[in-house]
Amino acid sequence: MNLSSGTARIAVKLHKQVSLVRTAEPMLAEELLARKNLSKLVAGRLSDTVLLVRSEEEDALLDELRRMGHTPRVVR
Amino acid sequence: MSGDEVTADSVSESNGVEDPSVSSPPPQALPPLVAYVEALGKYPHAVAIIIATSLGLNDVRRRKNGLAETISEALAAPRAAERLILGLDHSSRLAIGIFALAEAYEWSTHGLFLTLQCLDVDVRDAIVPLLECGLIVLETKDEAEVLAWNPKLDPASWPRSVLRLFPGAMSSARTTLPLSEIPNSTDTVRLVRESDGLEPILRLAVLWQRVSEAPLRQTQSGLLYKRDRDRIEEDPALVGPIADAIEPLPDPAAFWLALGRSVGIIEAEAGTERIIAAPATYWEDNAFHLPQMVASRWLSLTRWQEQGGAIAAETVGELALPNIRAACLLWLAKLEPDQWCGVEDLAAIFDRLAPGWARPLLDSVARDHLGGDLGGLEGILLGTGYQLGLIRLAEEVPSTRRVVQLSLLGRYVVGIGPPPPPRPTFDHFLFVQPNFEIIAYRQGLNPRMLGELGRFARWGRIGAALELVLSPASVYQSLEGGFSEPQLLEFLTKHSQRALPPGVAEAVRTWSSRRERVTYFASATLVEFASPSDLEAALVFWPTGRADPVRIADRLLLVEDESAIPFTRLRLAGSRDYRRAPEACLEVEADGVSLALDLGRSDLLVDAELARFADESRAGLRSDGRRRFVVTAASLLRGSTRGVSAATLSRWFPQRTGGPLPPAIRLLLAAATGTAPPLGTSRPIVVRTASAEWLDGLLQHPLTRPHLGDRLGPTAVIVPEESLETLRRVVEELGLKWESTEGPPTPLKRPTVGK
Questions:
Q1: How many Å lie between the alpha carbon of B579 and the closest alpha carbon of chain A?
Q2: Residues B277, B208: contact at Cβ < 8 Å?
Q3: Which domains are present in chain A?
Q4: B 513-572 near A (Cβ less than 8 A)
Q5: Of B561, B559, B603, B558, the residue nearest B580 (C-alpha)
Q6: By CB count within 10 A, which of B52, B149, B485, B691 is most buried?
């Protein structure tokens, strides 16, 4: 499927109800990925500062972030 | 009267230790209307017909099913319940008014009987008319129990069950006072005492905060796990002594937990074993009415009492004392605002009307308690009633007797007075210290402010003054609850007696900013563009101001508010909901190791999943535009270091390709793990026959069959080298010719052997 083909309107694909972690800087994302317990919960890295996580692991993820001393802002 | 069923005894028991086998959540109570219809549905048909007829439903006699729903619908008609209540006599109106006073949709039969007895009301006269018109139903195990029950008999012989109010009648029922008079005194009184009524709100604020920090867990039987039980029972802010106490509250942790559950400030999380705190908006929505809510729900706490605290879990039976609370308020409501009543006088009324009212359990033989018991009554009036701000206490002159009356809040709760005026407040009730400790003076507080304080500072000691502490965790908790940093600083600045210490303001800002370093989006919406230039073009016309999109990758925008997406300028080429099961979006090509990605059905996870054990093909897109990935021995080796095993892939392939793990990849996996047996080489000896029929014969005959190997085709079969000589001898014994050839086989009429 070619997203850019066709009409004047710009073709997009929506990804709904995605769970992700966004860090203020890339080094912070690196720090999270270096943490063994946390990296297990990361499904992928979308960019330098955005990590894709699985929604069913939310509690474990937040617990681990807090254990690391972070105070994550939670957006629902 | 079931608001405290789970929590009241949860902290008083010795069990409730963590038990891994108990993982399912406790059963949830049915919604009131569902429970009412269900109870009515168990009535025998003839009894239901009596109720329907009394409501004017004369055409339902032949109906077998759905009668309970029909009765419920009739009662739900506009003003139907109100008209029925107006037509009731005094005793029935008083009975139904007790449900309204306690805002309870159910009451135990014998508990309500005791309340009515204490109010000088004939139980049968009060209850039977309510049952006959369906305003209340008796919950029974089955039809037989209803049939065996005769309402004309002594109420003591009625089933020990629950009476359920038709929920729609709650708003129409009004408090009705007893007809008899109460001994009263208008003599001079002195030393009038009235609590500030903040104690329950304060303790509930502490409970709410503690449960917000870490939810409680309960077993299937509703007991708290030991760790959580200890946490609550040992929290000084929750169970510490009350500064302005006349009578102590026994088992305070159980009381606050039960009260917290019944007013909904903490609640069971659906489908889990957790008890969680209500959202922070609870305080904005309910703070104003909270004193009245607390008072009403106190009347319906049946698993905790003023003498002894929470009922033990193993206790069979119901507490008697909780049923006295409503009777106390209704009797005191008979007093004029300048009248008082002695505690002993009230006890004497109960002794006369309901001997044994002070027995421990409703079922108890009342022999030891016939003489009355002031302890329980003092607990109700001067313990909880006083702390909840419902009861005023004074000393009668010159007798020095303790006399009580309803406070303004008490009169309002009972429905005989206007809402009490708001508490006088003064703005500067806080003292914020440089070490982040906060002292709050009760005089300036009201329930709403208590809620706000507890949202950003951790409760410490609760006494005549209140101690709280600001910390990174408490500030974080407040931000998570929607209380922003400017709001927090504004609150502290506005209510502090002195200027806010600069270090405190700075620390709050620093702690708040730390939260912005890591953000977790629980259910974000991402908009994926075909190219970075498309994304740039979209940003030009993207509306600004509301919730601006955030670019998180060269082709991805993060959108917090989906309604802000300008769909009029975009074309939706696909949509994927990540709460649903993963879709099969990959096609396995004929070689078994190449995978083609269907972009229309793919999601962001699949890229990450593929990256673990496959490489994107350098050959570029397929002719149909699909991206290709190739699984190689090296990529599998990389996967194995990241935890991708054969079992993982066996589960993954059906999900993502719709088919099993391809043999080619199985082969690579076996090679990577070193589990594949070595491959062997050999030159096979092949027997060829002139026709398939000849070979069929050789394979079937018992003398030749054991010496032949796999059939290669219609006229060819392998002969194991060690069987060659034996086969040759057998063939010749059968009278067939055996002939070895080196060149291509020549079809013969008789078998030949080629090597």
A1: 6
A2: yes
A3: 19-67 (3.30.70.1220)
A4: 514-531, 534, 537-538, 550, 552-553, 556, 558, 560, 562, 565, 569-572
A5: B603
A6: B52
Least CB-CB distance to B526: which of A18, A21, A23?
A: A18
Burial bucket for residue B424 (CB in 10 Å: 0-12, 13-18, 19+): exposed
Cβ–Cβ gap B599/A3 under 8 Å: yes
Question: Where in B348-447 does DSSP place strands (E)?
Answer: 391-396, 402-406, 430-432, 437-441
Residue with tokens 């309204």: B100
Q: Enumerate residues 305 to 364 of chain B having a beta carbon within 8 A of any beta carbon in chain A.
A: none
> Residue B147 — very low, low, confident or very high, per pLDDT cuts 50/70/90?
low
B368 versus B79: which is more confidently predicted? B79
Instruction: Measure the CA–CA gap between B201 and B256, rounded to whole angstroms.
Output: 10
User: What digits encode the pLDDT tens for the residues B263-313?
Assistant: 999 999 888 889 999 998 899 899 889 999 999 999 999 889 998 888 876
Express each pLDDT in B5-41 by its tens digit: 434 344 434 344 444 444 566 667 788 999 999 999 8
- Identify whether the C-beta of residue B51 lies closer than 8 Å to the C-beta of residue B134: yes
Q: How many contacts does A have with B, using Cβ atoms within 8 A?
A: 191
Cα–Cα distance list, B601 to A13, B89, B554, B569, B694 (Å): 10, 69, 21, 22, 56
Q: Which of A7, A13, A64 best probes binding to B when mutated, by most B CB atoms within 10 angstroms?
A: A13
Coarse DSSP helix, strand, coil percentages of chain B, rounded to the nearest 5 percent: 45, 15, 40
CB spacing of B524 vs A75 below 8 angstroms: yes
The pLDDT assigned to B228 comes to 92
Sign of CA dihedral B705, B711, B713, B715: negative
Do the chains contact at A15 and B529, CB–CB below 8 Å?
no
Q: Which sign does the torsion angle of CA B108, B109, B114, B120 carry?
A: positive
| Residues in chain A, total | 76
SS3 of B32, please? helix
Task: Say if the Cβ atoms of A46 and B519 lie within 8 Å.
Answer: no
CB pair distance less than 8 Å for A55 and B570: no
**B325 half-sphere exposure, CB direction, 13 A CA radius:** 34
A20 touches chain B (CB under 8 A): yes
Structure-token pair, residue B73: 């619908």
pLDDT tens figures, B470-501: 998 899 888 888 888 999 999 999 999 999 99
* Chain B: residue whose CA lies nearest to A43: B608
Give the pLDDT confidence of B36-76 residue by residue, as tens digits. Answer: 999 998 888 888 888 888 888 877 767 767 888 989 999 89
pLDDT for residue B515: 84
CA distance A7 to chain B (A): 8
- On whether the pTM is more than 0.80, the answer is no
pLDDT tens digits for B530-564? 888 999 999 988 888 767 888 888 889 998 778 88
